[in-house]
Amino acid sequence: MTLKIGVLGGDGIGPEVAREALKVLDTICELRSFSTERIEWPYGADHCMATGGPGKGVVLPATIWNEIKELDAIFLGAIGDPRFEAGYLEFGIVGALRFTLDLYVNLRPIKLYSEDLCPLKGKGVKDLDLLVVRENTEDAYAGIMGHLKKNTPDEVAIQEMIYTRKGVERVIRYAYQKCMERKKNFKLSLVDKANAIRAHDIWRRTFAEVGREFPKVQQDAMYVDACTMWLVKNPESFDTVVTTNLFGDIITDLGAMLQGGLGIAAGGNIHPGKVSMFEPIHGSAPKYKGQNKANPLAAINAMGMLLDHVGRQEEAALVEKAVAGLLSTRRIPSLQAGAMPCDRIGDLVAAEIRTLDGDKPRKPKPAAGKRTLIAVGGRKKTARR
Ligand code: IPM
Ligand code: MG
């Protein structure tokens, strides 16, 4: 089997953490005898600056969509750069991938791997294990917005939260299915703000209606403000959560902190059965760029999720087991940036995977197997076996 993936390292610490995730992927390929074919895209802040800068330069070229059609999945490092207006690159790249590929699920597991990483008093690994299913193509992110009389004292700014029956229904159905697969407490929590955002009634109704297809799943609906409170007070009461795009963005950052920080939290932007995109949920952290300080575990976990999505469940479980083992035994004692070099963490995970796989631990080598590099119009094509 050859896994075809597109890699977009992006900005700030993105390329560094992506490199470690690819190191882990190479290790898995070597151990499990499958190969990857990769397109490495140069897009992001530097590429845009080099081709004309904000407003003129290339953010994502139109040709990328045809390249993506040939792929199994996409891996993204991080996007965002202080030289650009907030949101310009984020929407031009992350948003464009989510919307154009119709990646309607943003799947974000929140799991504690070691008690000492959790800032909550008295909570252990058994208390924090939930799965957030964030809607990923609608809400305030749909881009229906504008300014009137911009830069005058009478300025008006609007941004609409939109929800379609189709969009709400498909993500809710996905969440029920995931809840069934998890076999945890068979409880799905809908998180909305139906008491203030009256349009959220569409979520409440659809949640109840789709729920009839899943009689085994207990339905639990709560407002987002209450959710943030319960996440801190009783995180063990959660199993699977389904929520709007904006609330999902917010509560998964809270969740990331509960599991130890942004250095560990990963996400999948998914359209079941289609080319999907996997990324750490952290940003580009420009101040750590190129310093080998960023923690790549979130990116490595995202690679695990990618493997799961392409049907490599065993290998995905191996990645998670390695990360969990290194954290619970405190061989990686901290998730803070700078606590341990980025490449060292990648090496440790790769070595742990070898050990778990029954191979003798040995000094990690850079790249496994045969490698060819072909420069194709500003991007690199890499084949590894
Ligand atoms: C995320 C990020 C993005 C989002 C930003 C970069 C637009 O915070 O993936 O959670 O809000 O979706
Ligand atoms: Mg976010």
Helix and strand topology:
Blueprint: E1 2-10, H1 14-32, E2 35-41, H2 45-50, H3 64-69, E3 73-78, H4 88-100, E4 105-111, E5 129-135, E6 145-148, E7 156-159, H5 165-182, E8 187-192, H6 201-211, E9 218-223, H7 224-233, E10 240-243, H8 245-258, E11 266-270, E12 276-280, H9 297-309, H10 313-328, H11 342-356, E13 371-376, E14 379-384
Bound molecules: 3-isopropylmalic acid and magnesium ion (MG).
Task: Walk me through this protein's architecture.
With 385 residues, the chain is α/β, with parallel strands linked by helices. It folds into 2 domains: 1-104 and 271-385, Isopropylmalate Dehydrogenase (3-Layer(aba) Sandwich), CATH 3.40.718.10; 109-261, 3-Layer(aba) Sandwich (Isopropylmalate Dehydrogenase). 37% of the residues lie in helices and 21% in strands. The strands form 2 sheets. It has a 12-stranded mixed β-sheet, with helices on both faces. Strands 6-7 form a two-stranded antiparallel sheet. β6 and β7 (156-159) form a beta hairpin. α1 packs across α9 and α5 crosses α6 (201-211). The longest helix has 19 residues, at 14-32. The protein is globular and about 60 Å long. The termini are close together. Mean pLDDT is 93; it is low at 365-378. Bound molecules: 3-isopropylmalic acid (IPM) and magnesium ion. 3-isopropylmalic acid (IPM) is lined by residues 90, 94, 249, 281. Magnesium ion is lined by residues 249, 253, 281.
